[in-house]
């Protein structure tokens, strides 16, 4: 089992669009937090183990050729070492734009964790641990969250050699992504999905 592409970008940086793009380019299936929602009984305990330093990467990524979004983004350094031939993509958007999206989706979900329905409690506990590993859990103000975001971006840029890393914004479309991955540019438009409505529909659908 080997992962060919590691997504180091945190949630709300176009990770779902990137997932669809990678799958269109033949680099799927692509792991995304959506997969944890679908397969929580198996994956949630494994991500807890990963967060405390006893990962089972082969089991977590069994059947996947690439991975983006959280939880993967919190483990970019470990995964880059585990899969040394994998390319790393840091999905990115401006800190201010990211904060506006994050605050109305993931952060709002996490702030309401105590009131989540029982079936969501294990997922919420796992998410808190995973986001904490990346320095986001416990941050509440705009300034704190943007600082955590910038710190994550800077750490990835400093930790991955330039020839192995693509800093990518979904608005750039296919060309830089395909050039980095050595794939032909598809004829169709680059996927644009997972807006805030999509996010909440996905959460509600997990029940």
Tell me what the structure shows.
With 207 residues, the chain is of the alpha/beta class. 50% of the residues lie in helices and 8% in strands. It is built from eleven helices and five strands; from the N terminus they run E-H-E-H-H-H-E-H-E-H-H-H-H-E-H-H. It has helices at 15-24, 33-38, 40-51, 57-60, 76-82, 95-103, 106-111, 121-133, 142-159, 174-181, 196-205; strands spanning 5-7, 30-31, 66-67, 87-91, 165-168. A five-stranded parallel β-sheet has the order 2-3-1-4-5, sandwiched between helices. Helix 3 (40-51) packs parallel to helix 8 (121-133). 34% of the residues are buried. The mean pLDDT is 92.
What structural keywords apply?
11 helices; 207 residues; alpha/beta
Topology overview:
Blueprint: E1 5-7, H1 15-24, E2 30-31, H2 33-38, H3 40-51, H4 57-60, E3 66-67, H5 76-82, E4 87-91, H6 95-103, H7 106-111, H8 121-133, H9 142-159, E5 165-168, H10 174-181, H11 196-205
Parallel strand pairs: 1-3, 1-4, 2-3, 4-5
Helix pairs in contact: 3-8, 6-9
């Amino acid at each position: 089992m080997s992962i060919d592409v590691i997504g180091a970008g945190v949630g709300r940086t176009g990770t779902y669009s990137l997932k669809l793009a990678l799958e269109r380019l033949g680099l799927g299936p692509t792991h995304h937090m959506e997969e944890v929602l679908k397969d929580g009984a198996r994956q949630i305990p494994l991500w807890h183990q990963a967060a405390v330093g006893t990962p089972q990467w082969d089991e977590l990524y069994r059947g996947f050729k690439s991975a983006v979004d959280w939880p993967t983004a919190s483990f970019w350094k470990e995964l880059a070492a585990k899969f040394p031939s994998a390319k790393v993509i840091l999905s990115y958007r401006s800190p201010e734009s990211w904060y506006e999206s994050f605050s109305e989706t993931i952060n709002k979900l996490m702030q309401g964790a105590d009131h989540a329905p029982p079936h969501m409690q294990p997922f919420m506990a796992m998410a808190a641990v995973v986001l904490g590993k990346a320095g986001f859990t416990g941050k509440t103000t705009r300034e704190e969250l943007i600082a955590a975001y910038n710190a994550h971006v800077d750490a990835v840029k400093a930790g991955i050699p330039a020839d192995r890393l693509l800093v990518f914004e979904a608005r750039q479309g296919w060309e830089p992504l395909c050039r980095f991955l050595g794939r032909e540019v598809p004829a169709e438009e680059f996927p644009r999905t997972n807006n805030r409505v999509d996010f909440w529909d996905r959460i509600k659908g997990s029940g």
